[in-house]
Amino acid sequence: MIKKEYVLISILIIVILALSIAILNLNGLNHGNNSLNVASSHNREVIADDSVGSVEVIRNIGNPNAKKIAYVVGVHPLENLTHKTLLKLLPQQNNLKYCYDIYIINVTQDVGQYGDGSSDNSPGRQNGQNLALKYVYPQIANDTYELAVDVHSNIGAYPYKTFVFSPVKGALSEDYAEEVADSSQNITYYSPDSTTSGPYLTIPLNKNGVPAFYYEEYSFAPQEIKDLHMLELINGVDNLSFN
Ligand SMILES: [Zn+2]
């Protein structure tokens, strides 16, 4: 009798475990997807198809007759939750003052995964940076943008979690980033000592006529907080004045 119950309980445990694993796998498929596919009424145009990934652009969000601003997402592929937040929210905004293009870098090779609380050292970071320099930098530098904003996230290793900064001290982008921080409740101006991606996009842009600053969000902030902060960025940028 005891033996029979033991067998029944064992079978039950095995069934529960199998179901749990099946559910976890389904979740993994839904949330582990790194591609930046967010539904949008705006057209996405592929501007580069490379062996390590592709680059797309969504043009003319906001007021198509106004001065132009570029956003860039995807330089570091693991930071994609913050990238998706911009892709979701910017096209939803009504009455934007400026005209926005979003450049989307989709790294497909060596995307990697976050380590055990350590920083993201995946080769996908370098792939994204290379795609930025090769394809996004020339598009932005050769167009008429007033500003470029490079969107990233961090795992909390800085004294601030949500911040903006220019990688070039004394540049116009520093003024713009400071104005955005001043107008935002939750975005601080904080400049880390160095960046890995600066030489691949924001530094050459600043040195070649397009002010460019970083937006950094905390990777593990809940989605509603990411949304709140992103709206502060979007509004702060849209309220800038350009001469
Ligand atoms: Zn980054």
Jot down its keywords.
single chain, 243 residues, alpha/beta, Aminopeptidase, 2 domains, 8-stranded mixed sheet, 38% helix, binds zinc ion
What does this structure look like?
With 243 residues, the protein is α/β, with parallel strands linked by helices. The chain has 2 domains: 1-32; 36-238, Zn peptidases (Aminopeptidase, 3-Layer(aba) Sandwich). It contains 6 helices and 8 strands. The protein has an 8-stranded mixed sheet, sandwiched between helices. α2 crosses α6 (223-238) and α4 crosses α6 (223-238). The chain is elongated, with a radius of gyration of 21 Å. The model is unreliable at 26-32 (pLDDT under 50). Bound molecules: zinc ion.
Question: Which regions contain 5 or more consecutive residues with pLDDT less than 50?
Answer: 26-32
Number of helices: 6
CATH homologous superfamily (4th level) name of the largest domain: Zn peptidases
Oligomeric organization of the protein chains: single chain
How many domains in all? 2
Ligands, ions, cofactors: zinc ion
Q: What order do the strands of the largest sheet run in, or round the barrel if closed?
A: 1-2-4-3-5-8-6-7
Distance between the termini: 87 Å
Radius of gyration: 21 Å
What general form does the structure show? elongated
The class by helix and strand makeup works out as: alpha/beta
* Proportion of strand residues: 15-25%
Order of helices and strands: HEEEHEHEEHEHEH
Helix content: 25-40%
- How would a crystallographer describe the biggest sheet? 8 strands, mixed
Q: What is the second-level CATH architecture of the largest domain? A: 3-Layer(aba) Sandwich
- Average pLDDT: 88
Question: Count of DSSP E strands?
Answer: 8
